[in-house]
Please model this.
Amino acid sequence: MLKSMKLAAVLAAGLAVACPAYAVEQRFTVKEDGLVRFKASTTGITRVSVVGDRIASIINDNESSVYQVRNDEKTGDLFLKYAGPDEMPSKEGGYIVTEKGRTVAYEILPIRSETQTALITVRGNAPEADAPSGGTASGGFAETSFGGGDGLADQLTSATRDTIRTKIKSPLPRSGRNGALITTHRLGDLVGEVRVASAGKDARQVREREFYRSGVLSVWVQKKSLAAGERSWVVVVRSK
Model:
């Protein structure tokens, strides 16, 4: 698994020097909760950097990865080193969380080539004016926006973030009908629910109010504009 902060000792020798001057540079601009696909070398080192931010964690979709990871504490960059079999590996993905709480899904495209560098610029999602009172606007996996700043808002923000980090393990739902309950997370007097928003056969807009019912205190929607067949995560926080 890509457990970003655990393999520094294993990779220290191979990654003592950052990517050399001949590294192939890939530049991407993506919105929060968007998807970035970058090439990763199977013969050299691949550096992944978020412009103007630092990478806090990286979570892989699968139980294991063919890449080992080292985090540079000074820059917040990640360095990937291929450690798989001789044959060309399949694509793999997951999501990256930055220190500013922004999240993007990623997909690694393995190539037999020289050292690679992926520079990612993440654009924040502007808050939407129609967010229901007490609920959240769409935001990154690790960042929600409740407004108000009182004790309840802080508590709901914390509960939403903890549910996301603990229970969501993939960039987007792979299946599930609209409104389907995937799992729950108990947080003292609150319960976090992970649900699915689905577009079905037609593209549509997801509204927080679709998930409000008696006892619900806040709703976070990962992605509100869904294409046909697309799904999004929803976190509902309710009282017990």
